[in-house]
Write a structure and sequence with these properties.
single chain, 10 helices, mainly alpha
């Protein structure tokens, strides 16, 4: 097992450290500041985590979407807690949408072939898929509409099977929506 992928730090340990930083940032984010500025803070934390993973995996993207999503959701929950607001699905989705209001325009408008692009950016140019950016900017609708109910419905399963079942449900729904060209699940208009 000499592959750098097997030498990578466990993603759980890495994401736990970054989630703690995201939570601290969320608890302390000033109420009067625009929400997109908070996303910029979270993005910097995520980029540091990505750098660590890329060093450990010789540049292979193994967890970039996970780091992105967990950072946003952790920071959002902490922001709600810090503002003494209830942590509800509606509040989480509202804050996420506020934070990411400009994300698609900022990240995807103006992309051109020939630039150094991420896999998600290449898919956007080739197929119009906004991927995890689109899912996040929409408030993670697939996660809340399908993932969370699947997670709750399988409470009796062991942790691994429950996670896998939930992931497969989300992946199935997302893939079906992409194949149907559903603009509410990661495609541009």
């Amino acid at each position: 097992m000499s592959s750098p992928l097997f030498k990578a730090p466990p993603v759980y340990a890495l994401t736990l450290s970054r989630r703690k930083q995201a939570a601290t940032a969320g608890l302390n984010f000033p109420t009067e500041q625009p929400a997109p500025l908070f996303f910029n803070q979270l993005r910097l934390l995520g980029q540091r985590a990505e750098t660590t993973i890329f060093k450990a995996t010789a540049g292979v993207n193994t967890h970039k979407g996970t780091i992105f999503s967990l950072g946003i959701l952790t920071g959002t929950v902490a922001t709600l807690k810090g503002r003494q607001l209830p942590v509800t699905q509606l509040n989480v989705q509202r804050v996420v949408k506020e934070m990411l209001a400009n994300l698609l325009a900022t990240d995807l408008d103006g992309l051109k072939h020939g630039q150094q692009l991420t896999a998600g950016e290449r898919q956007y140019l080739a197929y119009g898929q906004t991927g995890i950016r689109g899912e996040a900017a929409s408030g993670f609708p697939t996660v809340f509409k399908y993932g969370l109910p699947t997670w709750r419905a399988n409470w009796g399963m062991n942790q691994n099977d429950r996670q896998l079942t939930t992931f497969l449900k989300i992946a199935t729904i997302f893939l079906a929506s992409v194949m149907e060209g559903d603009n509410d699940h990661g495609t541009k208009d």
